[in-house]
Amino acid sequence: MIADYGGVTKKMPMFAVFFLIMTLSSIGLPGLNGFVGEFLVLLGTFKSNVYLAIFATTGVILSACYMLWMFQRVMFNKITNPENEKLKDINKREWALFLPITILVFWIGIYPKPLLSRMDASVNHLLTQVDEKYKMMLNRSGKSEDGLVVSESKSTDYIKSEGVMSGPSYNHVNEVD
Questions:
Q1: Which of 42, 74, 137, 164 has the greatest number of CB atoms lying within 10 Å of its CB?
Q2: Nearest CA among 4, 138, 126, 2 for reference residue 68
Q3: For residue 162, what are the CA distances in angstroms to 1, 4, 58, 70, 151?
Q4: Transmembrane stretches, by residue range (predicted)?
Q5: Low-confidence winner among 54-58, 98-102, 128-132, 162-166 (lowest mean pLDDT)
Q6: Distance separating alpha carbons of residues 116 and 37, to the nearest angstrom
Q7: Which of 169, 150, 152 is nearest to 161 (CA)?
């Protein structure tokens, strides 16, 4: 429990640094890996439904407040638990574990393209499937949504406008007209 800790920074300063980096990554600080995921999810949500995106953004803000509150209570309060007086800072083995993970956190946050580009083909395939199901639903109901003609769709327009269908990774997916 959070109440069982406090003042950990006094006994474990290097651990506190790694813990801070991981906390900021979880919050979605730009330049760290959590930002990439949060940004892409919120961007897609804003393009789909602004009200849901505002609600999701509120959740991001509240979770950041909670994480910072937790970090402050665990790391900077007074040591109230006698067990915490016995804590030792990280050793060489733990450095060997924490350092590569921390490097990956920064690398993914600064240059996510190698990971994102590996997903292009599967994302394009998924968007094509969703697009086909959307068209089938519109054809069955005989209705159009948002002023779209039954032969048009949101996901295909998004794919074309974002240039997702161009490039070498798109070779595996047939373009939907």
A1: 74
A2: 2
A3: 46, 49, 26, 39, 20
A4: 12-30, 50-69, 95-112
A5: 162-166
A6: 10
A7: 152
